[in-house]
Amino acid sequence: MSDSADSSTAASIDEAFEALSAATPEGWRVELIEGEIHVVPPANGEHEGIVNLMVEQVVERRKDRRWTTRTGLGLLISGISPTGKVVPDLVIVPRGSYMDELEYHDPSEVVLVGEVTSRSTGASDRSSKLRGYARAKIPFYLLVDRDADAVSLYSEPSSGQYTREATVAMSKTIVLPHPLGFELDTSEF
Prior knowledge:
Elements: H1 3-23, E1 29-33, E2 36-40, H2 45-61, E3 67-70, E4 74-76, E5 85-86, E6 90-94, E7 104-105, E8 112-116, H3 122-126, H4 128-135, E9 140-145, E10 150-158, E11 161-169, E12 173-176, E13 182-185
C-alpha cells in the first residue's frame, strides 16, 4: 500500500472513530485497537472498585511522591491502531504531567498502565493492549485479570514485547518495583 493510501485509510478510520466517539452515550468510550473499533460500556461497580483500590494503594504506599495516578487519561499508542487511541483504567505518571486540554497524550512520561479485565475488554487487555504498551516502551503493564483470578505485572519492554512477567493469584501481593517501590495488596480485589 502506498503512503497516500495509508494516509487516506488512517484519515478515514480517524473520522469514523471521531464520529462514533461523538455519538457514544455518556459513560461509554470508544477505543481503536489494532484496527478494530471497540465501544466499551461503562464499568461495573466491581471493576471501578478494583481501580479505586489500586489508586488508593499507589497514593498511600508509593515511595517516591513525584508519581501520581490518573484514570480516564487517553493515550496515543502508536502501532496499536492507525489512530492509536486508548484509555487505560490506570496510568501512573510524574506529578504535573498531561495538565493540558488534550484528550489523548504521548505515552513517553508513563511509568505504568493498568487494566482491569471485563467481558468487553478482557481479550484485548490480554493481547493487543499488551503488545501495544510494550511497543510504546511503557516500563510496566499491570493486568488485573478477573477471569483468571490473577494479577500480572509485565516489564522490561524490548523489541515490541515485554520480556518479564510476574503473576500472582488474586488475594496475594505483587511487587511494583522502582520507581514505585511497594507491594500491591490484591486481597481486597
